[in-house]
Amino acid sequence: MKLLFDQNLSYRIVERLLPLYSGSVHVRLVGLESADDERIWNFAQANGYVIVSKDSDFHQRSLLQGFPPKLIWVRCGNCSTEQIEKVLRDNQAAIQDFCDHAIHSFLVLGPSGF
Fold first, then answer.
1. Confidence (pTM)
2. Selection from 38, 36, 46 nearest residue 7 by Cα
């Protein structure tokens, strides 16, 4: 499963999560650090990535345009990279299930107790 981390998430998260989500990249690492949402969406679609973002705009785009690409929307407000990493680690099985099922277009994740 290949995840594409949006610019609102630290590029450092990729290295930390690579053992769980091989093939994942950050927009910064593929030359899309300053790209608008449409370019990121199109890149993910063309290259088989699932977008991971804290940006509600991607959720709206997903509702309007459908998928691919799929979207993981991390809803934890102003939280640290470590907290986002924990959410993605703790939900690995749910993320795998989401990626494996063709009918799901987005997954909303938040910290425990959210």
1. 0.92
2. 36
If we measure between CA atoms, which residue out of 75, 76, 107, 77 comes closest to residue 92? 107
Name residue 107's beta-bridge partners. Answer: 72
Give the pLDDT band of residue 55 (cuts 50, 70, 90).
confident
CB 14 within 8 A of CB 29: yes
In whole angstroms, give the CA distance from residue 32 to residue 24: 14
**H helices within the chain, ranges in order?**
12-17, 37-47, 56-65, 81-90, 92-100
